[in-house]
């Protein structure tokens, strides 16, 4: 990200790259899908897209830390993933999709805590994460222990950050 920041400053060629990156991330975020393991090639391709989306999310969190990207973009993406996850919980056959949303929420929340913990919207996001940790898995059609534990990991990481930085 530091190199990317220098390239943005130095070369006109990179001026439009942030818009391209954000657009690609938007497309990847809005096209999350699940693929059966029976179609191995498509399953592998989908896993690559999932990895790419998470890596781009991590890259964007580092852009926020370097002041190359507005906080609002990350907050909007977290809101988007949380909302999609909530929409899908009562719909059959959405478990894998919700697990992917949980993975993306984890990447964005854990890696921007140091930048966003004072933001008003951040408090709402954490409330939603805490709410998810209290859901009984068997009571929702498309909620899994994996998604629940990923949210529990977010709380653990956030509490660790708060403690290490003596934040009240």
Q: How would you explain this protein's 3D organization?
A:
Helix 2 (17-30) crosses helix 3, helix 3 runs parallel beside helix 5 (95-116) and helix 6 packs across helix 7. Helices cover 73% and strands 0% of the residues. The radius of gyration is 17 Å and the shape is globular. It contains seven helices and no strands. By secondary structure, it is mainly alpha-helical.
Percent helix among the residues? over 70%
Write the H/E string, N to C.
Answer: HHHHHHH
Tell me, rounded to a whole number, the average pLDDT.
94
Taking the alpha carbons of the first and last residues, their distance comes to 30 Å
Count of DSSP helices? 7
Shape: globular
For the largest beta-sheet, the strand count, sense and barrel status come to: none
**How would you name the oligomeric state of the polypeptide chains in this document?**
single chain
> Low-confidence parts, pLDDT < 50 over ≥5 residues?
none
DSSP strand tally = 0
**Secondary structure category:** mainly alpha
- The value of Rg in angstroms is 17 Å
- Share in β-strands: under 5%
Topology diagram in text:
Elements (H helix, E strand, L loop, with lengths): L1 H9 L6 H14 L9 H26 L5 H18 L6 H22 L3 H14 L11 H20 L4
Helix pairs in contact: 2-3, 3-5, 4-5, 4-6, 5-7, 6-7
């Amino acid at each position: 990200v530091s190199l990317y920041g220098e390239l943005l400053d130095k070369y006109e060629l990179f001026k439009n790259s942030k818009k391209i990156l954000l657009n690609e991330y938007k497309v990847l975020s809005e096209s999350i899908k699940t693929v059966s393991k029976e179609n191995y090639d498509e399953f592998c391709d989908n896993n690559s897209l999932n990895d790419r989306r998470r890596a781009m999310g991590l890259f964007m969190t580092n852009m926020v830390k370097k002041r190359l990207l507005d906080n609002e973009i990350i907050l909007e993406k977290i809101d988007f993933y949380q909302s999609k996850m909530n929409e899908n919980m009562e719909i059959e056959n959405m478990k894998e999709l919700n697990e992917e949303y949980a993975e993306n929420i984890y990447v964005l929340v854990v890696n921007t805590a140091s930048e966003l913990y004072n933001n008003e919207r951040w408090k709402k996001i954490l409330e939603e994460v805490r709410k998810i940790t209290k859901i009984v898995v068997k009571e929702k059609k498309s909620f899994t222990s994996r998604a629940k534990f990923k949210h529990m990991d977010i709380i653990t990481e956030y509490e660790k950050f708060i403690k290490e930085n003596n934040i009240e």
